[in-house]
Amino acid sequence: MKINQILILFLFFNFTNVMSIEPDEILEDVQLEQRAREISSVLRCMVCQNENIDNSNAGIAKDLRILIREELIAGKTNSQIINFVHNKYGDYVLFKPPLKFYTFFLWISPFVIFFFLFLLFFRKKKID
Amino acid sequence: MIAEYGLIFLILSMLLSAFQFLLPLYQSLVYPNGAKKITISVERNSELIFYTTLVSYCCLVYCFVVSDFSLQITSQNSNSQLPLLYKITGVWGNHEGSILLWLLVMTFFGFLFSKHNFKNSFLKTNTLIVHALLCFLISSFIFFTSNPFERIFPPSIEGKDLNPLLQDPGLAIHPPILYIGYVGCSVVYSLAIAFLFSKDSSKEFIKILKPWVFLSWSFLTLGIGLGSWWAYYELGWGGFWFWDPVENASLLPWLTSTALLHTIIVSERKKKLLSWSISLSIITFCLSLLGTFLVRSGVLTSVHAFANDPSRGVYILCLLVFISGAGGILLYKNLHKYSDQNNVHLLSREGAISLNNIFMLTITGTVLLGTIYPLFTDAFFEKKISVGAPFFNATISPLVIPMVLGMILGPLMKWGRDDLKQIFFRLRPVIFINFLLMLLVWYFTYRGPVVAVIFIALAIWLATSSLFEIYQLVLINLKKKKSFNIPLKTVSQALAHFGIAILIIGATGTSILKKENIQFQEVGEVISTSGYEVKFMGVSKEIGTNYKSDFAKFELYKNGVLVSVLNPEKRIYNFGKQVTTEAAIFSTLLGDIYISIGDNNSGLWTTRIWFNPYTIWIWLGVLFMFIGGLISLKRSFKELK
């Protein structure tokens, strides 16, 4: 019950506040800021329901947003930064799951479903 | 006392539903030839089930309106200070009440179907029997696991508040509309099952099925659109679709019912694809139930997950397994009867429809898998992963492109079999117009990313080809009959496709081309964005019925002329002290100015100002689809008479 209540608290907490990127976090350099947004849109806030770190106002998300910008200024590439965060927090932090054996089926599923249905449906014709 | 009456009527409704499918079962076992006797009672009974549920529901509404806090549900989800509207809509702002609403809509559909006049009494009776079984499953679910009339002792003096996010007119009407769509699928399911039991001709079945598919599809469309609109203005991020599990859950039956209504058109015209129509009818309702299961059981957390009670989850899971299992077995046993009808040439109208259906089902499968995949890896590999917007955008967008092409070319192809050269010949004017339009698009959006240009160009092509279709028909009719009569079928189809086209433009603009300004803004300071000047006029404290608010005032100028005054708010609700943001939006066809306010930092306010290009086109698109659906609905009801 306690955990549920805490979860519900988080839920309200997160959904009742607007996009939490604050004006003082935004970089002067428009292109770097654009890249920062691209990176944060694929990173999940670890304590929220289903939000990326741009939309979250949790402390951990803010820390990550600042970290990303520091690394960008230091000249790291997007994938270097995402890898760094991924290594630190694990798969859960990535909204786009990495290609591994346990996510393989997820990634190939659109092709599998499409070809399965296509064959199921248009195969008939060849027999005729 | 009223609450007890509510419970009694709920039990009555449950017993009546049970009676309706148990009696015929008993009769058919004892007297194999007693069908006629039942017909009358089944129709009457469907009415009774609806009336008893309605009374039960009204009792619950009454408890909310008079703020009877001796009930568990009211004490948790209502409050004496709440405006009357939200007391009433609070009934479905929680798990128990919303499932009772679900049942009410469901029994209403049984009632409607019993009034639906067509000759085939066997099909009608059986459909009502299957439908009563579904009603029974839901009402027993309510009675045994989520009784809304449960009392608490001692009674509360004051209720906790209704979740402030739900205190909004948009969300007040969103669930009933969506439920009409979801639950309409139950009639479609019942019809399909009843048909599998019968030996009737397919033609009549398709004719009877059609209006119900259009009805549920139209309301699903509108319901999802309303939900998305609410998310856009209430959550304050300027987004309209978040790939949240609940949104995905509502999208799944929409996709399959869209596929269904296309196969029905083929089934009706060419007596083909009947097995598809039946399968999709069954799958669509199973997916609506699956959505409910995913949301209610709490296995996937989301804003809409009112309660996380495992017993409810298990019950719905059993229900789902039973309903989809029964449908699946029946399908498997009977499908061979219709398998010879699937001979479709790819290069024809029905071929294009089928191919698009395959794309649509691929999207359905991908969304479904993406939504539940984290559960799967957690259970089998003990790996926690996230599947979110970036995954869905990456996998779904490439599937949308060939689908839009299919929507452009399909309606201009011939039934049966077509020729590639002839298609090109017929399409010449459209291709020429589009070449010009694409140049225009390229010229105006060349600063935008390539994806945006592709999607907008495709959407414009789709829009023009939909209009071209209508134009062609007008031309033909003018020549032949000298009249403006256009077949409604084409109008509704063209309208719906046109709706999709402008929806794509709106979605692309809002998600890719938006411009943002986030800053600490001083009172009197002007921010310029996309041809508008936004002047911050300050924040005052206001007191609402059950909240206090920071009420901001912005003046919006275009070329120095005041066009609008916008008042975004930040509200703190009296009970629970929850904070909500109310964005202020100024909509034009070219885009929305979207303002929300944040915190006060020693005199400077955090203000977030977005320019969201074409956002209004999303809702317009939904509206076009809804109207298209309604036109088809009206036509298919007329055809039956």
Distance between the termini of chain A: 62 Å
The total count of strands of chain B amounts to: 10
Number of discrete domains of chain A: 2
Give the low-confidence spans of chain A: 1-18
Strand content of chain A is under 5%
Can you give the mean pLDDT of chain B?
Answer: 86
The coarse silhouette of chain B is globular
Helix content of chain A: 55-70%
- What's the architecture of the largest domain in chain A in CATH terms? Orthogonal Bundle
CATH topology term of the largest domain in chain A: Helicase, Ruva Protein, domain 3
Count of individual helical segments of chain A: 5
Q: What's the main sheet of chain A like?
A: none
**Oligomer, anyone?**
heterodimer
User: Can you tell me the overall shape of chain A?
Assistant: elongated
**What is the string of SSEs of chain A from the N terminus onward?**
HHHHH
Secondary structure: helix percent of chain B: 55-70%
Task: Output the helix-strand order of chain B.
Answer: HHHHHHHHHHHHHHHHEEEEEEEEEEH
SSE arrangement:
The complex is a heterodimer of chains A (128) and B (641).
Chain A lengths: L1 H14 L14 H12 L17 H15 L4 H12 L14 H24 L1
Helix pairs in contact in A: 2-3, 2-4
Chain B lengths: L1 H29 L4 H31 L6 H6 L6 H6 L5 H21 L5 H25 L23 H29 L4 H33 L10 H26 L3 H23 L13 H25 L14 H32 L8 H21 L10 H26 L4 H31 L7 H25 L2 E7 L4 E4 L2 E12 L3 E12 L2 E6 L2 E5 L5 E4 L1 E5 L2 E11 L2 E10 L1 H26 L1
Antiparallel strand pairs in B: 1-10, 2-3, 3-4, 4-5, 4-6, 6-7, 8-9, 9-10
General description of the model:
The complex is a heterodimer of chains A (128) and B (641). In chain A, 60% of the residues lie in helices and 0% in strands. The relative contact order of chain A is 0.10. Chain A has helices at 2-15, 30-41, 59-73, 78-89, 104-127. Chain A folds into 2 domains: 2-96, Cytochrome C biogenesis protein (Helicase, Ruva Protein, domain 3); 99-128. By secondary structure, chain B is of the alpha+beta class. Chain B has a domain at 515-613. Chain B is 65% helix and 12% strand. Chain B has helices at 2-30, 35-65, 72-77, 84-89, 95-115, 121-145, 169-197, 202-234, 245-270, 274-296, 310-334, 349-380, 389-409, 420-445, 450-480, 488-512, 615-640; strands at residues 515-521, 526-529, 532-543, 547-558, 561-566, 569-573, 579-582, 584-588, 591-601, 604-613. In chain B, helix 12 (349-380) packs antiparallel against helix 13, helix 13 (389-409) packs parallel to helix 15 and helix 14 (420-445) crosses helix 15. Chain B is globular. Classes of the chains: A mainly alpha (128), B alpha+beta (641). Chains A and B meet through helix 1 and helix 5 of A and helix 12, helix 13, strand 1 and strand 7 of B.
